[in-house]
Amino acid sequence: MSLARAREACRIYLKDELPLDKDPREVIQRFRATVNMLPEELEEWLLSADSRQAVEQAAEEADRNGRHVARRIVEMLQKDDECVYEADLEQMNQITQYISCHRRLLEEKGNALDPLELAHLKNFGFDLHKAVNAPAAAGQAGGGSKPAAAAGGGRMGGQAEPQRMEP
Fold first, then answer.
1. What 3-state DSSP class applies to 141?
2. What does the alpha-carbon distance between residue 22 and residue 19 come to, in Å, rounded to a whole number?
3. Distance set, CA 126 to CA 30, 66, 85, 120 (Å)
4. Which residues does the annotated region (Disordered) include (predicted)?
5. pLDDT tier at 57 (50, 70, 90 boundaries)?
6. Which residue ranges make up each domain of the chain?
């Protein structure tokens, strides 16, 4: 599948609404486990020519938003779990689903990637090289600098669940 077709197949997840029955702790934990770049790594990556090139060569508007989304990912990774808002949860869920979709497509291709595809995924906080070379430690958190919500503490660790705000 071409890069354009893969992006098209996965792009729908960037518009998903957060299901009402979705546990916020699970959303945060999955996001932190899926995004495998540290905030500092992602910020440094965004300064690179490869990051800019992935955006400039994107044909679709949604793909050109990758660098903006990456800056939001940095912000969300740096947040404490008790400071996560509904909009953050929704975007965390979207990013997790988007990266997971790309990973499924990559597995179908045997992880054969062109450099532009790698750069695009890195703009969303996922570095395939880190994923392939990562130790297989059970329960290991992702790239976020804050602990996963499942580890306890904060709003997600026992206080009232956040309320869904309707538009």
1. coil
2. 5
3. 13, 12, 22, 9
4. 136-167
5. confident
6. 3-129
* Dihedrals phi, psi of 47, to nearest 5 degrees: -80, -10
Amino acid (one-letter) located at 69:
V
Find all residues with CB under 8 Å of 69, minimum gap 6, and list them: 14, 91, 95, 123, 124
User: At what angle are helices 39-46 and 49-56 packed, to 10 degrees?
Assistant: 70
Would you state the structure tokens that stand for residue 70, as one six-digit string?
């990456």
Which pair of tokens denotes residue 114?
């062109």
- Cα 109–64–141 angle (5° rounding)? 60
Q: 10 Å Cβ neighbour count for 127?
A: 20
Is the pLDDT at 125 greater than 60? The verdict is yes
Please determine, for residue 58, whether its predicted confidence score (pLDDT) is greater than 70: no
